[in-house]
Amino acid sequence: MYSDFTLADDRPAYIQVKDYMKRLMTTGALQADQKLPSTRELGSLLHVSRNTVLNAYSDLEDEGYIYAVKGQGHFVIPSINTNETEAQPANVQLDWTSRLNDYARLAEANDLMKHGIRAGKGAISFTSIAPDEKLFDLQNVKRAFLDRMSLEGEVLLNYGYAKGYKPLIDYLLHYMENKGVDVSGKDLLVTSGFTEGLSLVLAALNKGHGRILCENPTHHTAIKNFKMHGYAITGVPMEQDGISLADLAGELAARPYDLAYLVPSYHNPTGIVMSPQKRLETLRLLSEYETPVIEDGFNEELRYSGSHIAPLVACAGGGNNSVIYLGSFSKILFPGLRVGWVLADKTLIDYLESVKRARSIHTSTLDQSLLYQYLYNGNFEKYLKRAKAEYKRKYELAKSCCEEWLPQHRLTGDGGLHVFVQFEQGLRTRELLEACSAQGVVFTPGDIFYTDGGGQHTMRLGFSRVSDENIRKGIRIIGETARRMV
Amino acid sequence: MYSDFTLADDRPAYIQVKDYMKRLMTTGALQADQKLPSTRELGSLLHVSRNTVLNAYSDLEDEGYIYAVKGQGHFVIPSINTNETEAQPANVQLDWTSRLNDYARLAEANDLMKHGIRAGKGAISFTSIAPDEKLFDLQNVKRAFLDRMSLEGEVLLNYGYAKGYKPLIDYLLHYMENKGVDVSGKDLLVTSGFTEGLSLVLAALNKGHGRILCENPTHHTAIKNFKMHGYAITGVPMEQDGISLADLAGELAARPYDLAYLVPSYHNPTGIVMSPQKRLETLRLLSEYETPVIEDGFNEELRYSGSHIAPLVACAGGGNNSVIYLGSFSKILFPGLRVGWVLADKTLIDYLESVKRARSIHTSTLDQSLLYQYLYNGNFEKYLKRAKAEYKRKYELAKSCCEEWLPQHRLTGDGGLHVFVQFEQGLRTRELLEACSAQGVVFTPGDIFYTDGGGQHTMRLGFSRVSDENIRKGIRIIGETARRMV
Question: What family classification does the UniProt entry report for this protein (chains A, B) (predicted)?
Fold first, then answer.
């Protein structure tokens, strides 16, 4: 005893002594009513000052771990050590697996972090589409934090509101208006990222027909959540400028759908941007069948060239309340700050707000207020300009490497942080991945994005966090390996 | 046009000009292919420098809102304005109310922020049990943030892990060990507060018998979530030292339960701390029926006096995996930082992690890392000591005021941030509230905490955010009003 104590030099010593002593008592190394060493003695045993021990003992007494007897020293309070009591409850080992429901099982079975591609140490990994953290401007983030803390620190640290931090809500409403959205009759709920927004909407809506319609392929997290909520998923094929209208019309005519889910900008995984004309036509069709649409505003800030294209929720106009827009800055700004938003019909938002409150009270006020200040200061504009220039450069590099090296059938991606490659049908990218992985290169096989088991000849290459050199090297290796397999 | 532009002095001017021009374009005030004013002209119209307009126009061109024609100036890109296109989708007004499910409806119907007690401006409000933000030590919070940002800022702002921020997980595991928990076979998931933890557990577990057991009265948010998940709720009466064992035994023998939910420390709303002996006895009973228990670690850090009492999860010992412990510092530290944790059987945590990832990816890394650094620095210990002293003082004041003024039948609350008052059965606290509210004093009527419509003669008084003067004045008014009603 006492010989295994080590002192970290960046933490108050008395707290470390206190923690250490608590551990001895709760584990039973020091037993009920046992006398503790004197402060002088313990100081010498642990190589700390007597004063440190005095402080530790004083805290332990305050917290009800030890008691003092005048002239005799300190003793362990009996109720601390639960191991010795006679009424110890039975040893019960519940089989938790059998107590889980399908919702939890499907979450686990479709969890890419658990069952996805693992890159070995030092591997060139094209699996991520997170932003490159080297582009983050930490100085401005710190400034935004300190600015906000000085203005209203106490308030930020106490409870906020489920709907969100008011200045951020107002900022985002204005931001959406600048994208052409008529916000009358609509409202905005701040969420902990896009994913929470999607989860809230799916949790709140009636599963009338049990069917949902989306692009095929589409965002894996969305597929996972549809499955968890028990929806049958119909994927509509993609064309070069977005979802196939003929197929969409056919599906809508064939059977009723509760919801559609669309990613019109930098569609994940194909990177396709839906044309303005197609956006209107898609909305017209969905509106005809009174099918609401969840619009995933994924990466629409990352347009590198060409005209601004209004999101579906703007195209719908003020007279149409059928679009639920899910926004987020995560893919371009700071994913670690879990902030996204839902812009939709007022009535719907009112209920989503209550569901959010019941589930998690509210989104971190610190994240919200820091993001707000950062946006307000104009830092986002400057950062976006720099990030876009850098990602555009990488996008073009990746694209030209694909064209040079890959025996590809078709490459899509108008920008964003990834490109999507289709090989000839015979080439199975799962096998390609296995072969490349052995050479230290990994990517995301496209099949995980398909709603119907298709896409076995496709892959997604995320380039945002890969160096220029590794983009060249990695794609060359994938290309050489693929050629050998064709 | 241009006369309604106002310039805020704490934001870059060019961004404000850009925003303003976007608005004119997206609303159709400036139409497709319309010529914009020259930079000189607009500068003069908006009272900004020509350089500001140059910057704004340059950004607008980059973002695809306007195009330049050499020698002629700038023009609006046609696709911006969605109001004029011929293919405008139909005006569809979906009836969202009819599309919501019971989960959302129950969240709304039981949303206290919407249907609860509203305090008028200047009212003395005993409804809150949030910490007093005046006690927060902002300097140390700022320091913790800056420390952490300097160490690993870029990493903190990019994606983290669903399970939580590793240093915080390790810290909390150690923290729980110091409470006497045997963590072998267990694991820990960081959540966005206690509430997310509860929501995740309820969402993941099979609703075998559809029945849940809890103390009566109990935490309102828990009742809300049980209802949302479709559970029939059985409330077991409280005694002075916690749940009635005889009633608990009776209920367990009468019918099978999927889950129990208990708040052993500073039970909300009664403030009762369950005795060590009763903790063991309760666990023994529940284990006998293989009924898992959700332990709400609510405010157990706020013990003002007496011995440390081990939480249920510690009492259960290493051989019993039936306790799911939900922890949080929110009620004492910073609720604005949405951080809590679930400590439970490894298998269960593994599934909860996937559900959490599917729902919101992860808890704010900034919140987690800031909290970790604050705890590690030893600031929590110092803060807790100061906060406890202050809350203890207020608790004693509130208690003595109740004893002096209220025609009460019974007062419970061994500490914490509130006391719970039971009047004689005839006195209805809803009516009392109405009468007090007219005099500028509000509190929480106890009926909202009851699982069976009972408690109409009870009320909860939260004192943490009420000044000494107002505690005296408020309780006096409640007492005088109650005496008139008896």
Answer: In the C-terminal section; belongs to the class-I pyridoxal-phosphate-dependent aminotransferase family.
Helices of type H across B256-343? 276-288, 312-315
- Domain range for B187: 137-377
Which neighbouring-strand residues pair with B327? B341
Which residues from B are below 8 Å from A101, CB to CB? 204-207
**Domain end marker among A343, A358, A377:** A377
Q: A326-347 b/e with 16+ CB inside 10 Å = b? A: bbbbbbbbbbbbbbbbbbbbeb
Chain B's closest residue to A317, CA to CA, is B83
Four-point Cα dihedral B428, B430, B432, B436, nearest 10: 170
The verdict on A197 and A290 lying in the same domain is yes
Strands (E), B195-231: 211-216
> For residues B300 and B383, which has the higher predicted lDDT (pLDDT)?
B383
| Beta carbons of A159 and B377 less than 8 Å apart | no
Is the CB of A84 inside 8 Å of chain B's CB atoms? no
Q: Do A317 and B82 touch (CB under 8 A)?
A: yes
CB < 8 Å to B160, chain A: 336
Residues A38 and A151 in one domain: no
The stretch B251-280 carries a mean pLDDT of 95
Same domain, A299 and A347: yes
- Are residues B136 and A157, on separate chains, in Cβ contact within 8 Å? yes
Residue at B291 is within a domain: yes
Question: A219 and A203 in one domain?
Answer: yes
The answer on A195 and A148 residing in a single domain is yes
**Which of A26, A287, A364 is opposite residue B178, by nearest beta carbon?**
A26
Is B136 in the A-facing interface, judged by CB distances under 8 Å? yes
Quote the pLDDT of residue B299.
82
Domain count, chain A: 3
| pLDDT of amino acid A82 | 56
User: Cβ separation of A162 and B113 shorter than 8 Å?
Assistant: yes
Of B15 and B329, more confident: B15
Rounded (to 5) percent helix, strand, coil in chain A = 45, 15, 40
Does a structural domain hold residue B463? yes
Q: What percent of chain A has pLDDT over 90?
A: 84
Structure confidence at residue A85 (pLDDT): 53
Q: Write out residues 32-61 of A within 8 Å (CB-CB) of B.
A: 59
Residue A86 clears pLDDT 70, i.e. is over it: no
Residue B107 placed within a domain: no
B178 touches chain A (CB under 8 A): yes
How far is Cα of residue A94 from the mean position of the Cα atoms in its chain? 32
Asked whether the beta carbons of residue B354 and residue A108 sit closer than 8 angstroms, the reply is: yes
Give the pLDDT confidence of A420-439 residue by residue, as tens digits: 999 999 999 999 999 999 99
Residues B281, B207 share a domain: yes
Measure in Å the smallest separation between the Cα of A290 and chain B Cα atoms.
7
Q: What is the pTM of this model?
A: 0.96
Whether residue A103 is contained in a domain is answered as no
Mean pLDDT, residues A51-61 taken together: 95
Q: Do B322 and A81 make contact, defined as CB atoms within 8 angstroms?
A: no
**Same structural domain, B208 and B271:** yes
CATH number at residue A262: 3.40.640.10
Choose one of A358, A377, A396: the last residue of a domain.
A377
Using a CB-CB distance cutoff of 8 angstroms, which residues of chain B are in contact with residue A193?
A: 360-361
Query: Any CB–CB contact under 8 A between A68 and chain B?
Result: no
CATH of the domain at A79: 1.10.10.10
Chain A nearest-CA distance from B18, in A, is 10
Do B288 and B228 belong to one domain? yes
Rounded distance, CA B283 to CA B315, Å? 8
Residue A443, domain CATH = 3.90.1150.10
Residue A187, min C-alpha distance to chain B (Å)? 13
How distant is the Cα of B459 from the closest Cα of chain A, in angstroms? 22
Residue type, A165: Y
Mean pLDDT value of segment B50-62: 94
- The DSSP letter of residue B25 is H
Predicted confidence (pLDDT) at residue A84 exceeds the cutoff of 70: no
Q: Cβ(A32)–Cβ(A82) under 8 Å?
A: no
Residue A47, sorted as left (phi over 0), alpha (psi -120 to 50) or beta, turns out to be: left
